[in-house]
Amino acid sequence: MTVGMASSASVTASSTGQGASATSSASSIPIGAPAAPIRLALIEGLSGPLGNGGEAVFRNLVWATERVNARGGVRLPGGARRLELVRFDSKGSVEESLSMLRAATDQGIQVVLQGNSSAVAGALIAALDKHNAREPARRALFLNYAAVDPALTGAQCSFWHFRFDAHTDMRLAALVEVIAQDRALKTIYLIGQDYSFGQHLREQARAMLARRRPDLRIVGDELHPLGRVKDFLPYATKIRASGAQAVLTGNWGNDLTLLIKAAKDIGLEARFHTFYGNALGVPGVLGEAGVDRVLAVAEWHPNVGTADAERFYAAFRQRFPKPEHDYLHARMQLMVEMLVAAMERAGTTAPRAVATALEGLKLDGRPLGIAHEGEMRAADHQLQQPLYVSVMRRAGEAGVPHDNEGSGYGFRTLRYLDATRAAQPSSCRMRRPD
Predict the structure, then answer these.
(1) What is the pTM of this model?
(2) pLDDT at site 52
(3) Hey, which residues does 163 pair with through a beta bridge?
(4) CATH architecture of 169-298+386-422
(5) What's residue 35's pLDDT?
(6) Would you state the pLDDT for residue 133?
(7) Which intervals of the chain are annotated as region Disordered (predicted)?
């Protein structure tokens, strides 16, 4: 793969795509000579302090597109077409992301992928709304795999934007359900990143905890700059001084890894309730200190315990055998497959037709080897999907056959919420194009 701004990477591999409901089995498609691949623009921070998260996303999307291409590509009336992933390094900046969006649309790319920052996602939605209104011949869709501010499918909801991750309120509600049943827990500390996602999480956590655990004392509540803190020792020291028994954080990337490391270094024994504590170095940093103390919430994890999940995870490990590349998210695979299914359902790659086909689309990923399923809610373009709350344990114990990143520690399911229980109300009032 070629690395660098707007450098393209053609990819190949195996799996199967389907239409509105994934019920058919894999089939072989004759490969002709397509006029051009279908290009997908990944606009993400691929360098800088949070670049590790961007590269981890890239690996997931490479694998997803490889699997589509290995079966012949996207089946369209004019013949099957391959997917091509094109990298645009935003360096984690809103301004650079907008510049990359212009570069992508100038090249005629019709699908944009982004997720690591709700602030960036919000700016992209606004810019793409204007672009698509001004230039209907060069419209593009925005598929979001990780930006979880509820406003993106609420007050700012857009016909051109689809979110495939569970948003903040969905993830938070799952964590609060676990917190609410821990009657021994009396004190908690809130800490997060100072941007739209972290600010919303802070407010919603207070509200949800007040409803579910009015007796629980919040002994600390603060935000820190996104991606700029190099030493979290002062924050960990304040958490310890507060007497908090638990910490609730939405931190991701190095902001989470460094926070967890600082907590370990000072012997902080609080339990961490996280959105992303099961990836990107956290288990390896914590080691034994994280056992029973780090919780995470996600749509899937390697130890969910089904035969489908075992096959799915084994296939990914075969493609990316390095332990440090162990960052697999089922939703990113489902996102690409749902895009393919919508294009095949619409019979075109035209953004408006594909968006209409995505609305209400249900996809069972199990026939595709994904071990995940979801339904794209038409009202707000928020994917409805199951969620798991899991806790860090030693690999090899009951329920933990797989570790994370070669650390010797993995995650075991504490709570499973089906899509109905994980759902949250929609406040979207979507304006659809004429």
Answers:
(1) 0.87
(2) 87
(3) 144, 382
(4) 3-Layer(aba) Sandwich (3.40)
(5) 58
(6) 97
(7) 1-28
Q: CA geometry: angle at 55 spanning 404 and 400, to 5°?
A: 10
The type of residue at 322 is: K
What tokens does 342 get?
Answer: 């919508």
Phi, psi of 223 (to 5 degrees): -120, 150
95 backbone dihedrals φ, ψ, rounded to 5°: -60, -45
Q: What are phi and psi of 393, to 5 degrees?
A: -140, 175
Q: In whole angstroms, what is the distance from residue 54 CA to residue 177 CA?
A: 30
Helix/strand/coil (H, E, C) string of the chain?
CCCCCCEEEECCCCCCCCCCCCCCCCCCCCCCCCCCCEEEEEEECCCCCCHHHHHHHHHHHHHHHHHHHHCCCECCCCCCECEEEEEEECCCCHHHHHHHHHHHHHCCCCEEEECCCHHHHHHHHHHHHHHHHHCHHHCCEEEECCCCCHHHHCCCCCCCEEECCCCHHHHHHHHHHHHHCCCCCCEEEEEEECCHHHHHHHHHHHHHHHHHCCCCEEEEEEEECCCCCCCCHHHHHHHHHHCCCEEEECCCCHHHHHHHHHHHHCCCCCEEEECCCCCCCHHHHHHHHHCCCEEEEECCCCCCCCHHHHHHHHHHHHHCCCHHHCCCCHHHHHHHHHHHHHHHHHCCCCHHHHHHHHCCCEEECHHHCCCCEEEEECCCCEEECCEEEEEEEECCCCCCCCCCCCCCEEEEEEEEECHHHHCCCCCCCCCCCC
Amino acid in position 111:
V
Dist. CA 344–CA 287, nearest whole Å: 46
Question: Half-sphere exposure of 83 toward its Cβ, with a 13 Å CA cutoff?
Answer: 30
Asked if 165 contacts 150 with a C-beta cutoff of 8 angstroms, the reply is: no
Position 368, amino acid: L
Give every residue of the chain whose pLDDT is below 70, as ranges.
1-35
Give the CATH architecture of domain 7-166+307-384. 3-Layer(aba) Sandwich (3.40)
